[in-house]
Specification:
Layout (H helix, E strand, L loop, with lengths): L14 H7 L2 H4 L3 H17 L5 H19 L12 H13 L2 H4 L6 H37 L4 E6 L2 E7 H25 L2 E2 L15 H7 L4 E2 L3 H6 L2 H27 L7 E2 L18 H24 L14 H24 L1 E2 L1 H7 L7 H12 L3 H18 L8 H7 L7 H5 L1 H7 L8 H23 L1
Helix pairs in contact: 3-4, 3-7, 3-9, 4-5, 7-8, 7-13, 7-20, 8-11, 8-20, 11-12, 11-13, 12-13, 15-16
The chain binds arginine.
Length: 466
């Protein structure tokens, strides 16, 4: 059998054209969506009296067989078929004969590819949301255990104020919660059916797009067919959502890398998720977070690639758009494995509480507390308080201790308005717990954040399962 579109051609396609033009090597990933879409289309054609019952039943049976052949690895993918749409249709016609040739009534590959690709993106949107929930759940579990474990909070990677490790984990849980919500909103916005748009202008056949939309789990058909066959926003949103989520994952990875260094020693990554060196026997390397950080780059690239492919295209379909798939598949696969492995890394890492708390004794973390104390308890204007605190820090430096270790007496030597109760204010734990404003780091506020996110998690897990 020649090409399905060979009618107006008198010469055969060159094999070089086949190689350059074909998408089959990568779009075969879409086979299940192509078959699902064809079944829904056939069902509608039958209901509208365009296919007889016999033809419809043959098509469904034939498509089932194609699916089985592909899944059993028996299907012969021939690149001269160009893409998965034509490969499936050709095989269907080989199996069931003439009825197979009727399947493409009121359909074009333009709405077919828009449908298959959208079904793929929607299915993986759900999968990615499931995986995000699992990662958030892992972060929340660590947070629950460590809402009293103090570590130096940083700005400019310099010790700034004491926070607790649970609070730090909840910062990432919050980012991932927003990521989830971005995927969720993209899913809702794009849950519209492209099928029935045909080449670009709709079709004269009496089709029922509401029926195909419903059969395929879409909320309704898209509004305008010209837009629908030209639109890849749904894939761009997916790519943007993944890129942003990977940026968050990359930042967490960066912290895991820093924290697991000998200099920090805040966490120890499990052996199961660490690697060794081929030459230095003592080494244990954080390859997983490094790769997560590294792979983030390709997800940005995929987003920029597709934006660039789309930017100059006149309506409607142009072959440039075949370039939409590989980058999207790559980002989706990168996102899914990244979420999965990071969840395991978080679940299995060991938090070195003592090292974190030791580090809190470096850098005079409660300096802001002394200034606040001078303002609140002694009525000293903030600028002056800032200066007095600076003197206290200099004294601690001179004595080789942390500010929190200075005695009340020593501090009173700097300013006699300072009371005996100052010591309590300078303790690192007091400092951490003093930041008790809404969304702050105090253990109580951290627990509040954990509770809110846990409740949200339960709600989302239930809706995704339903
Ligand atoms: N393989 C094509 C793609 O992935 C399918 C659509 C082809 N449509 C067309 N009119 N050539 O974009």
């Amino acid at each position: 059998m020649g090409k399905l579109w060979s009618g107006r051609f008198s010469e055969n396609a060159s094999s070089l054209l086949d190689e350059f033009n074909a998408s089959l090597n990568f779009d075969k990933k879409l086979y299940q969506y192509d078959i699902l879409g064809s079944m829904a289309h056939a069902k509608m054609l039958h209901q509208q009296g365009i296919l007889t019952t016999q033809e419809y039943e043959d098509i469904v049976k034939g498509l089932e067989q194609v699916r089985q052949e592909i899944e059993a690895g028996e299907f012969v993918f021939d690149i001269s078929d160009e893409d998965i749409h034509m490969a499936v249709e050709k095989r269907l016609t080989q199996i069931i004969g003439d009825a197979g040739k009727k399947l493409h009534t009121a359909r074009s590959r333009n709405d077919q590819v828009a449908l298959d690709f959208r079904l793929y993106v929607q299915a993986h949107n759900e999968m990615i949301r499931q995986l995000i929930l699992r990662l958030i759940d892992a972060l929340v579990s660590v947070a629950k255990e460590h809402s009293e474990t103090m570590l130096p909070g940083m700005t400019h990677l310099q010790h700034a104020q004491p926070i607790n490790f649970g609070y730090h984990m909840m910062a990432y849980a919050s980012m991932l919660k927003r990521d989830f919500e971005r995927f969720e909103s993209s899913f809702k916005r794009n849950n519209l059916s492209p099928i029935g748009c045909a080449a670009l202008a709709g079709t004269p056949h009496p089709i029922d797009r509401q029926l195909t939309a419903k059969t395929l789990g879409f909320d309704e058909p898209t509004l305008n067919c010209l837009d629908t066959v030209s639109d890849r926003d749904f894939a761009l949103e997916m790519l943007f959502n993944i890129a942003t989520m990977m940026m968050h994952i990359s930042r967490l990875s960066e912290e895991l890398i820093i924290w697991s260094s000998s200099e920090f020693g805040f966490v120890t990554l499990s052996d199961a998720y660490s690697t060794g060196s081929s030459i230095m026997p003592q080494k244990k390397n954080p390859d997983v977070p490094e790769l997560l950080r590294g792979k983030t780059g390709r997800t940005y690239g995929n987003l920029i690639s597709l934006l660039t492919v789309m930017k100059g295209l006149p309506l409607a379909y142009n072959k440039d758009m075949q370039e939409d798939k590989e980058g999207t598949f790559d980002s989706v696969e990168t996102a899914e494995i990244s979420l999965t492995i990071l969840t395991e890394v978080i679940k299995t890492m060991h938090v070195n509480k003592e090292r974190m708390e030791e580090a809190c004794m470096i850098g005079h973390l409660s300096a802001t507390d002394l200034a606040d104390y001078l303002v609140e308890k002694c009525g000293i204007p903030f600028r002056e308080a800032h200066f007095i605190t600076g003197r206290a820090v200099a004294l601690a430096e001179q004595k080789g201790c942390d500010l929190s270790e200075l005695s009340a007496e020593a501090l009173q030597g700097i300013d006699n308005r300072i009371g005996d109760d100052v010591t309590e204010y300078l303790s690192i734990r007091h400092s951490m717990n003093a930041r008790s404003s809404e969304g702050g780091t105090s253990t109580q506020r951290t627990v509040e954040q954990i509770e809110k996110v846990s409740e949200w998690l339960k709600e989302k897990e239930a809706t995704l399962e339903a």
